[in-house]
Amino acid sequence: xxxxxxxxxxxxxxxxxxxxxxxxxxxxxxxxxxxxxxxxxxxxxxxxxxxxxxxxxxxxxxxxxxxxxxxxxxxxxxxxxxxxxxxxxxxxxxxxxxxxxxxxxxxxxxxxxxxxxxxxxxxxxxxxxxxxxxxxxxxxxxxxxxxxxxxxxxxxxxxxxxxxxxxxxxxxxxxxxxxxxxxxxxxxxxxxxxxxxxxxxxxxxxxxxxxxxxxxxxxxxxxxxxxxxxxxxxxxxxxxxxxxxxxxxxxxxxxxxxxxxxxxxxxxxxxxxxxxxxxxxxxxxxxxxxxxxxxxxxxxxxxxxxxxxxxxxxxxxxxxxxxxxxxxxxxxxxxxxxxxxxxxxxxxxxxxxxxxxxxxxxxxxxxxxxxxxxxxxxxxxxxxxxxxxxxxxxxxxxxxxxxxxxxxxxxxxxxxxxxxxxxxxxxxxxxxxxxxxxxxxxxxxxxxxxxxxxxxxxxxxxxxxxxxxxxxxxxxxxxxxxxxxxxxxxxxxxxxxxxxxxxxxxxxxxxxxxxxxxxxxxxxxxxxxxxxxxxxxxxxxxxxxxxxxxxxxxxxxxxxxxxxxxxxxxxxxxxxxxxxxx
Length: 582
Known about the structure:
The protein is an alpha/beta fold and about 575 residues long. It contains 17 helices and 14 strands.
């Protein structure tokens, strides 16, 4: 059966004419979306009013009227018409129903919460993920699936804000534009996003789905965002065969296998896949590029504000096992063997993993639960893996002041030398005191220690160098050394809404920092983002740059003047590199 359905340009025009002239937009919304139609009329009204009216001048009668016409048309006709067209989509993984996102003339199909692995509970808890079975009955993919349970000190900021559940958290989201450029006859380029959060927190619904659908997909790429396990659930290791850890990285790997198997049915090209992420997400994509278990399932990667060679991202297996053992002892565990330690973690409520406030971590840094050099996901030293890995197109970036957003982890007024000790303990350097002396001299020799602002700024620079800049540069150098096609950049554009809470409230001064680029690539996150005209231009530049890279392996685009120069491995990070290497 062939079906033709149509809408007119302004479906709500006639119906709006019957509305009393003094009726407000809020009142019209309340009338259409009353309690018989939605569960929470007030919350629905607030969302709709914010969405339709956020850029409208309250004193502009014509603009207000036009928005009311658009809303009535969408609510009573357009959305229902579109949903009748997209009732069930028979994807290669099973029949699903999804969303339709309209952005002007362009339409993006979205499928949220698509399962790619079986529930990681019971016998599958603290194990590598198992692929989800194909289903035969339609499933609704209208809203984000639950995130994986959170851990660490940041978990408190997300409690009650999003849904978390261990039993069905391994899901992903697909945003597929309806445009079919002849240039990509095999399918559109695919971009797979992995969130950050220090491997302790994070979930795909950190990104607003409508906002995301209106960024990269409008530039002719299919976007996939992925949930993976974090905290102990994702990275518990006993340092031996009992629990090797890195389950979150295996989740990411299985998601890439799902992309290879199924993305073609969503309009994507499995032979043109780019993976990208920020912070722990940036480190993740670099890890995926190193591991022989994952590095043949994509063709390029972009690591923003994080890489495999950053000190925060990974520890030796014996040290990470010690962290997990000491965490258990902090709560009364008194066993000695690996089996009893695994059993202790299996018996805990996941809420326990957020109680880290008084836990004295036996390792440097701010994080407890991170990946480890397990001998499995990483069967060889990282440098050897890089040498043997497929040659890829690579972008690595930093923010102008990477350490700025991490000052919330540094107690106010803490002496600089104590911050050095926090990041460079005996697990990191051979001679702690000598290393601290060299670093204090290097960073503080020209600083008036009574000038709190000057000390703060130098501390920001140190934290950024120690945790991010040097590791990211070393990734660029490593990739270039072994024949990868590498681009290196710093994102220096400041935007007051560029970073989400809780970090946004702690910035010591205004500058681009860790993750500031993300909203300019994928749109709104957990905090508000109402871009100005200038910021919209920056978004367009970033979106074009990133999608050029995804399409062609070159951020400059195809057959255009070369603005971005390839990194040749010659540039050093900073004058501080020598001291930190020492």
